[in-house]
Each structure stands twice: as structure tokens, then as C-alpha cells.
Amino acid sequence: MKQQAFAWVRANPARFAVISLKRLFYYWNGVPRPTSSLLPIDFRTSGFLATSVLAIWGAILAVRQKRPAAWLFAGLLLTYPTIYYFVYPHARYRHPIEPELTILIVFLIFEAVGSNRREVKRIVD
Questions:
Q1: Residue/partner pairs of 23-30 with CB below 8 Å, 24 or more apart
Q2: Cβ distance 4 to 19 under 8 Å?
Q3: Is the pLDDT confidence value at 120 over 60?
Q4: What DSSP assignment string belongs to 79-124?
Q5: If you average pLDDT over residues 15-35, what whole number do you get?
């Protein structure tokens, strides 16, 4: 089976790249599920996507601010899910990094609130 899989990848590199990019998107957005909705967007996964975007944003902000251990969080986001981009991106495979995603989201929120307070104080003073 391994030889067949590698042969298929060698024979279809463009298709393999497209499938892998879809899996990358599904890992961070959630795997689409059948729906009877006429809407082209599946809003059931919007919370999944929101947490992904906020956590990645928080990681970028932490790295830019050169916070201690920011590269550890960013490295985790870059390396842990890589294998799931090539196999099956089910939601349960994201559970081990959910605590780190939550920490990054809380960091982002606190930075936003803190910068807003500093800006208001600067305007008032």
C-alpha cells in the first residue's frame, strides 16, 4: 500500500498538492459536513475557524512583541498539525493543541483591551 500511495503521489503531484491544501484548510476550519442548508457557507464550523484565526493572530502578535516563549507557541502551530495536512484532518486531532490556542486567544484579547485602555488614557491625559 505504501508503494501504491507513493506511486500515486508521483503520478499526481498537482492533485496531491490541492488535496493537501484542502486538508490544511479543513484542519483549521473544520471538516465540512452534509447540510440541507441552501447557503454556500457552513456556519457550523465558523466557531472553529474563529478560534483558529484568533490563535494564529495571537501567535503572530506575541512573536512580533518578542514575548518569552512566543516561538514555542508559534512552532507548535507550525509543526504539530503538519502531518494532518497529508492524512485526515479530523477535529479530534486538534484537541491536543486546544489549550495552547486558548492561551494565544486570551493573550490577543488582553493585548487588545490593554492597548485600548492605554489609548484612552493617552487621549484623556
A1: 23/84, 23/85, 23/86, 23/87, 23/88, 23/89, 24/81, 24/85, 24/89, 26/89, 27/81, 27/84, 27/85, 27/89, 27/93, 27/94, 28/52, 28/56, 28/81, 30/91
A2: no
A3: no
A4: HGGGGGGTS---GGGGGGGHHHHHHHHHHHHHHHHHHHHHHHHHHH
A5: 85
Domain residue spans of the chain? 2-32+43-124
Q: Which three cell numbers stand for residue 76?
A: 507548535
Separation CA 105–CA 60 (nearest Å): 11
Is 29 in contact with 52 (CB distance < 8 Å)? yes
- State the burial class of residue 52 (Cβ atoms within 10 Å of its Cβ: 0-12, 13-18, 19+): buried
- For 68-85, the pLDDT digits (tens) are 999 999 999 999 999 988
pTM score of the predicted model: 0.77
